[in-house]
């Protein structure tokens, strides 16, 4: 790999960190390990081609272009957490991965997406991830920060919202969301 390719890969990984909280290679490897998958199976569940998954993992591509795939990634992250904490068995996880594979995405904001496995409302984290995904599908983190900086003098609350959800970490956005609920 020449210097220009290395620089492009490093930039793609940095963009991934700003959009998804971490480079996709690390995120996908963790899902593979936590859910007992291989790359081909992960690609199939997400609805990506194996070469596209490989390009995202290696940093040859920065962004997941399909919002439904982003939502499947988020659903798999939730599932991996449930497997890790023992609330979902390996067998149940396999069934849930099939459901995730068939899902078309949808929006938790409009109520068209599947809710949590308890049958109740979507989790705060899921709503926050939906907001982040929507903002990040519209603009890059740097552009969102620039827009927020422009708004800050006259609309500080809106500027904070854009920065937290559009360019911040999920944990910070969850705290912001919970702090603004009556």
TrEMBL record:
Keywords associated with the record: DNA-binding
Gene3D superfamilies: lambda repressor-like DNA-binding domains (1.10.260.40)
InterPro entries: Cro/C1-type_HTH, Lambda_DNA-bd_dom_sf
Record lineage: Bacteria, Bacillati, Actinomycetota, Actinomycetes, Kitasatosporales
Compositionally biased spans, kind Polar residues: 104-120
CDD domains reported for this sequence: HTH_XRE (cd00093)
Domain of life: Bacteria
Name of the protein in question: DNA-binding protein
Organism from which the protein derives: Streptomyces atratus
Disordered: region residues: 101-122
Gene Ontology terms for molecular function: DNA binding
């Amino acid at each position: 790999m020449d210097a220009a390719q290395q620089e492009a890969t490093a930039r793609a990984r940095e963009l991934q960190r700003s959009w998804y909280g971490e480079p996709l290679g690390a995120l996908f490897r963790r899902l593979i390990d936590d859910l007992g998958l291989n790359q081909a199976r992960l690609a199939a569940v997400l609805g990506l081609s194996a070469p596209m998954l490989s390009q995202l993992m290696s940093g040859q591509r920065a962004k997941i272009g399909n919002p439904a795939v982003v939502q499947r990634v988020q659903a798999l992250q939730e599932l991996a957490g449930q497997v890790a904490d023992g609330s979902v068995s390996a067998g149940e996880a396999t069934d849930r991965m099939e459901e995730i594979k068939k899902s078309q995405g949808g929006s938790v904001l409009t109520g068209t997406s599947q809710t949590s496995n308890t049958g109740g409302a979507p989790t705060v984290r899921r709503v926050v991830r939906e907001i982040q995904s929507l903002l990040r599908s519209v603009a890059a983190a740097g552009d969102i920060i620039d827009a927020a900086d422009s708004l800050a003098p006259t609309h500080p609350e809106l500027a904070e919202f854009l920065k937290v959800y559009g360019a911040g970490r999920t944990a910070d956005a969850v705290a912001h969301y919970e702090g603004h609920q009556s």
